[in-house]
Amino acid sequence: MKYKEIYLWGRSELEQAGIGEFDLDARLLLEFICNTNRNTLLVYGDREVTSEEEKGYREAIALRGSRIPLQHITGVQEFMGLEFKVNKHVLCPRQDTECLVEEVMRYLHDGNRILDMCTGSGCILLSLLHYSNHCSGIGADISKEALTVAAENTEKIAAMKRPNPWDEKTVELIHSDLFSNVPEEKFDIIVSNPPYIASAVIPTLMEEVRVHEPMSALDGMEDGLFFYRKIVAESRNYLVKEGMLFFEIGHDQGQAVSDMMAEAGFMEITVVKDFAGLDRVVYGSYR
Ligand code: GLN
């Protein structure tokens, strides 16, 4: 079969299965299986695929058609220009979360200590460390399975070439229910993308997210604000003077989280919108 032919087959299978971005997903899966890129379809559509490639692609399309997220099939997701390993135990890094990392970057100084609460795949902490110098940090998560993924990502990103190589103290991953096992120290920056979907909204999420992503990374309890309350209250004990707390939030949580931070004594509280024009990040500094 020709490359283009099998792509058109995959595309139509995914369209029939009701996958939103069927053409993109069909192409990305074919590129994953054949180790090709975007150009291949444009320029080399006539090339033959091997029978193994065809078999692999048919399997991948069947999985995607059954609503398995694309990233669980390829095992990776790009985030902040870096490639992160993902599986069903971590939330796939979202483009929205790049907005959070970019805000933190604006305030991050060389040598800062960072705490990433609910680190999941580690994508926030690791990209902050990758794009800064001499910083170090702790990634905390309640899920041991997530920490295994974060450890693999740490190893992968630590191995990248950089002017100031990381050492064993650059990243520490801690199994912790929020702050319970976080060592008593003061951080310059605390950042968190906690679970923030209100429980009542969970049934409305796409099947890919609702069934295949970890519920413990999504469910923010009754009003979705459970983890913000806890993290705001506790982070005060873990921040240096004028240390900063950064959150990713849901589009309708800007006011509530800002109020919570103001009440807890945070200053200069700012809500930042994402590229879709929706409130996405709240941060403030602690006096
Ligand atoms: N933004 C994610 C979603 O919409 C939720 C992330 C979270 O709860 N931290 O699926």
Features of the shown structure:
single chain, Rossmann fold, 40% helix, 287 residues, alpha/beta, 11 helices, 2 domains, 9 strands
Describe this protein's structure.
The protein has helices at residues 3-16, 22-34, 38-43, 51-65, 70-74, 95-107, 123-130, 144-158, 207-212, 226-235, 254-263, and strands at residues 76-79, 82-85, 113-117, 136-141, 171-175, 187-192, 239-248, 266-273, 279-286. With 287 residues, it is of the alpha/beta class. It folds into 2 domains: 3-66; 81-286, 3-Layer(aba) Sandwich (Rossmann fold). Strands 5-4-3-6-7-9-8 form a 7-stranded mixed sheet, with helices on both faces. It is globular and about 65 Å long. The model has no long low-confidence stretch (mean pLDDT 97). Glutamine (GLN) binds at residues 91, 94, 96, 193-197, 209, 218.
| Tally of structural domains | 2
Give the overall shape.
globular
N to C succession of SSEs: HHHHHEEHEHEHEEHHEHEE
CATH class of the largest domain: Alpha Beta
Give the overall pLDDT as a whole number: 97
Bound molecules: glutamine
Structural class: alpha/beta
Could you estimate the helical fraction of the residues in percent? 40-55%
Biggest sheet features: 7 strands, mixed
CATH topology heading of the largest domain: Rossmann fold
